[in-house]
Design brief:
mainly alpha; elongated; 2 domains; about 0% strand; 7 helices
Length: about 120
Amino acid sequence: MKKQEFKKNLFDALNQNIDDMIFEEKILFIEKLLVDYQKDNDSNFDKSNKGKPWTDAELKIILSDAATKYNCMKYAKLFKRGYGSIEQIYRWSTTSEKEITEKGKGDDKFIQQIKRVYKELGLVS
């Protein structure tokens, strides 16, 4: 299929009414679907940095932004990592020290790096 034909077909689909949604609601719904599509096809993205250490600067960029599906996908693509790794950074950043210890992860250097960066950003009292 040619790009122009694909665009026409996509726009035709996007122009259909969806459960009486107003335009703004429809745009938000479409954006959510696009993120879900990317997440479901995460394996097709470049993950050449998978398994490599994270820098504090990279973690600061991620943790300075809201923990949303959109941001997880954005940073996974930007840093060439998996969606789940970004999601996990957000999770560990807000997991209590007690819970980390109970899970046997108290000595995990990466988790401690996330917690340190999170505190440096002033996101933990």
